[in-house]
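Researcher: Here's a chain I'd like modeled. Treat it as a single chain, no partners, no ligands.
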Amino acid sequence: GLGARRHGLAAANGESERLLGSARGQLPGRPLDMLVPESLRAAHAGHTKEDFQHPRSRPLGNGLRLEGRRKDGSSFPVDISLSMLQTDSGPLTAAAVRDITPAEASYRGLVEGSIQGILVHQDGVVRFANPALVALLSHAGAGDLVGRRIDDLIAPEDRARIMALREEWRQSASAAIRYENRMLPRDGGARWVECISSRTIWGGAGATLITMGGISERRSARDPLPLSDTILRGGGGATGGVRA
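Model: Modeled as a single isolated chain. Structure tokens:
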């Protein structure tokens, strides 16, 4: 267990110290960033600010999958529960941290090693992007995407259509939607992708998981294919759709 305030750790029990590879009493007073791998710190800073501005509790097993950093610099997957407390010294976040390496290693391997781009967005904000998605959009790392608005990554000429499709799906009980649109990679131009969006949980709240693959070659100017945005029902069959 850990206790944290906005600017650093306030307390840590023996199990947390063992898990993070720290000696007794070394964690209190240290900055929160020391517990986060360097590649994720920019995104973590935004999440921490949001948590303190809009405090809410999260139980273990809430789908908030994070990376912890040990004192020796190694990282490992963790499951974190949060409880926001008011004390005489101000707000305090109580966190229970669980090493989920055995249970999550195979899952993370599939996601991180997938040749399909995988993205999670919540309330329109990107929360996760795997290496294939980062490469597809020509970015240097997930930190370039996490925290950005999903609509800002879609080509302007496709945004209205995708927003309308998303709203229709949101109001339905359909399992997923399949659609094609142009994304804006970092290196300029626009890139055609085929997407399947499905519902998921992220940070204990509803979110959207998108698998994405590049199709620019088969959507060439010489042989354009018709758009086919399809609502996928619970059984997996395509029984209706929206066309651009």
